[in-house]
UniProtKB/TrEMBL annotation:
Homotetramer. The keyword NAD applies. The active site is at E269. Its EC number is 1.2.1.3. It comes from the Bacteria. One of its GO terms (molecular function) is aldehyde dehydrogenase (NAD+) activity. This is aldehyde dehydrogenase (NAD(+)). Keywords: NAD, Oxidoreductase. Residues 37-498 form the Aldehyde dehydrogenase domain.
Amino acid sequence: MAANLADFGIKEALSELGVKDINEGSSTGSNSFSNGELIESYSPVDGKLIAKVKATTQADYNKVMDAATSAFKDWRTMPAPQRGEIVRQFGDKLREKKEALGKLVSYEMGKSYQEGLGEVQEMIDICDFAVGLSRQLHGLTMHSERPGHRMYEQYHPMGVVGIISAFNFPVAVWAWNTALAWVCGDVCVWKPSEKTPLCGIACQNIAAEVFKANGLPEGISNLINGDHKVGGMMSKDKRMPLLSATGSIRMGKSVAQEVAGRLGKSLLELGGNNAIIVTPDADIKMTVIGAVFGAVGTAGQRCTSTRRLIIHESIYDKVKDAVVKAYGQLRIGNPLDENNHVGPIIDKDAVKMYQAALDKVVEEGGNVVVEGGVLSGEGYESGCYVKPAIAEAKNDYEIVQHETFAPVLYLIKYSGDVHDALALQNGVGQGLSSAIMTNNLREAEAFLSVEGSDCGISNVNIGTSGAEIGGAFGGEKDTGGGRESGSDAWKVYMRRQTNTINYTDDLPLAQGIKFDL
Ligand code: UN1
C-alpha cells in the first residue's frame, strides 16, 4: 500500500522527461536562467521531496524576456501553417511521452494516473486542434463605401504571451494557451504553480527538444519559476501584451488590475462554484455518476468540480441516498494505483482549508451526511489524504458561497420549478460551469435560455467537469470572463488589424466628407 516510487516507475518517468537532479539541488529546465531561492517540490502522494528548483529573480526574468522578445522576431515571420507543423511535432512528442508525463502529473500533483493520462490527452488534442487552426486564422473582408477601395482584416501575433497556471492542471492548461499562441505566432513565458514546478520543467524540455530539432530559437518557449512575486513581474511588464492567468479569484483580481493599469490584456480563468440541478425528471443513475465524478474527481480540485447538488424536494431523499451509497464505495489511496478512485489533495494547507470548511458548514447549521476526515497510517503518510464529504446545506451559507478546493459536496433542496433551482444555482459569485439533469425538454431549454444558467459552461445530462477542448473554456462573473482552448478562443492571442487599400488615383474621404485643396 505504501507509495513506492520503484513500484510505479516514477524514477524512469522522471528520467525519460529529463527532469534531473532529483533530491540533489537545482533543476531548472531548458532555457531557464533561474538563480533565485530554492522551491521544494513535495509529492502529496508519499510526502517525499522530489526535487528543488530555483526561483526566477528579476534579473533572470529580464534575461528570459530578452530571449523571448528576440525569438518572437523570427517566429512571427514563419508562415502559420509551418508553425502548425512544429506544433504537430510537439503533439507527437507528447504522444511518445504520454505515460511518463501522466505519471509525473499524478505523482507531483496527486490526481489519479488515469486523470494524469487524461490531462496529457488534452494537451495532444489541443495540439491537433491548433495544427488545423494554423491554416484557418481567418479575418473577414468588407465592402468599402468608397469606389476603388478594398477592405479586409488580418490577424497578427501579439508578441510575448505570459501564462500563469495552477497546480490542479499542471500541464494541460499551459498547453491550451501555448499551442494556440504558438500557431498564432506568439512566443510564451510560462510560470507554472510553485507547487508543481517539475511538470513545468518536463513540458519545457519536450518543447525545447522540438524547437532545437527544427533549428528554431529556444526562446519561443520559456519557463520561469516562483510564486506571486514572479507573477507580479509578469503583470507589470509592458513587454507582455497578453497575460493568461488561471488560479484563485484573489490572484485574478490582482493580475487584472495590474495588467489593466498598463492597458495590457488579461485572460482570466478563476474560481468556480459549480452546481448540478437535479429535477424530478432526472435519470438518477446518470445523476449519481456525474455528481460523484464531478465532486471527487481530482479530489475536488478542478475549477469545474461539482460543489453543489441542487435537488428537487420530490426526489431529494432518493438522490441523497444514492449519492451517499456511491460514496461508500470510493477507494482513497495512492493515485498511481489504478484501483483507487481518489488521491490526496495538494498539501497540508489544503487539508486545513478542507477541515475548516467542514467545521464552518456545521457551525452555519449544515448537516453532515458523509463524514470527512484526514486519513492516517500506512499509505497515508503524507497527511494529504482526506475523505470526500457531503453536507446538507443552504445556498446562502457563507461557506457554500465560497470555493473550497477539496472534495466537499453540498446538497441543497429546492421546491417549485426549474427557475427556482436556477435562482439558487446563479446565486453565487462565480460563474464557471453548470449542469442540469433532466429528461424534460422544457426544463433543459429553460436552463440554457437567456433566463437560465449564467455560467460559461452549461451542460445538459452531463456533470460540470470534463469539458472537451473543442469548446471555448471559461466563465463569467468572478470566474473572470476569459475563454481558452477551442472555438474562436485563438482570437485573444492575436491583434486584429483593419486594412483599407485604395487602388485609384483619387483620394475620396469616408463619410462623404469633401476636403478640396
Ligand atoms: C481546471 O480545472 O482548471 O473541464 C481545468 C475540465 C477539464 C479542465 C479543467 N477539461 O474539468
